[in-house]
Specification:
The chain is mainly alpha-helical and 273 residues long. It has 14 helices and no strands. The protein is globular.
Length: 273
């Protein structure tokens, strides 16, 4: 933006020096306002409702990616594509994106649009394969979008409200499902897709969810019904966790995705109680 301003504001000849000076000041002012608004996401405190919207957005971003990879595994299954489209519609309808105040960063729109375009570009049904470039571009946009959401919510990490803790665990479960399904659908050695960085692997995320569920079950503000629901979640998690911890030697994506969907659903219902 700054480069364009300099080119546009440079006077064509000596007689336009005054005009050029004025326009340079105008461009500087526009750039300042843009930078001010770009940093406002981090400056504006989030309400509990907005923090919930952040978690729901993260959940749908991961959920869309899970369906993207399942779509490859199931070789263009129509029902899987329909489920992907449903999740995309939920993501687009999140108030975080549809009701963003004017003083907050509008750059979400471009990144979200790019992610959605790529998440819907899986060529498996039409070409019989999923392009490595599509996968990498989709994951690049996904990472950028998730990082923006993390920055948006960073100042609120001290909020330990029960509802938000439940939503956070649901996001973690879906993140694991996405990672696992992606590896099953596009194993690195076959496609040349770059592996995740050290510390961002399925087993690491599984251990973190174990810790989150342990923390949730140890809370003293749980109702009897909620405690029973979380105990059922934890039981399902204990069954599937060993397969996730040993993800390099076991490949059971359908089982993982089915259990993940159930666990996420239970946690979301608990958050709604």
């Amino acid at each position: 933006m700054a480069a364009k301003c300099v080119k546009y504001c440079t006077p064509d000849n000596k007689n336009n020096k005054l005009k050029g000076s004025i326009m340079r000041h105008s461009c500087s002012a526009v750039l300042f306002v843009f930078l001010l608004f770009s940093s406002s996401l981090k400056a504006v405190p989030l309400s509990a409702d907005q923090k919930e919207q952040v978690y729901r957005a993260q959940l749908d971003i991961y959920r869309a990616a899970t369906h993207f990879h399942l779509y490859t595994l199931l070789e263009g299954d129509r029902q899987t594509r329909e489920q992907l489209d449903i999740v995309v519609n939920q993501l687009q309808g999140n108030p975080l994106f549809t009701e963003t105040p004017e003083d907050q960063d509008a750059s979400f729109e471009a990144v979200l649009s790019r992610y959605i375009t790529l998440i819907q570009s899986n060529e498996i049904a039409s070409e019989g394969y999923t392009s490595v470039y599509t996968i990498n571009d989709m994951e690049s946009a996904q990472t950028e979008l998730l990082e923006m959401l993390e920055k948006l919510a960073a100042s609120e990490e001290s909020d330990h409200a029960l509802k938000l803790a439940l939503l956070k665990s649901a996001v973690q479960m879906e993140k694991i499902s996405t990672r696992y399904t992606r590896l099953a659908a596009h194993w690195n050695g076959r496609t040349g897709i770059l592996p995740y960085p050290e510390g961002d692997t399925v087993d690491i995320h599984a251990q973190r969810l174990t810790e989150q569920l342990d923390t949730l079950l140890s809370r003293n503000d749980l109702s009897v019904s909620l405690s029973e629901r979380l105990s059922k979640v934890e039981k399902k998690w204990r069954f599937i966790a060993p397969k996730l911890m040993d993800y390099q030697n076991q490949t059971v994506p359908y089982l993982v995705s089915r259990y993940s969907e159930s666990i996420v659903g239970q946690l979301m219902q608990a958050a709604g109680e």
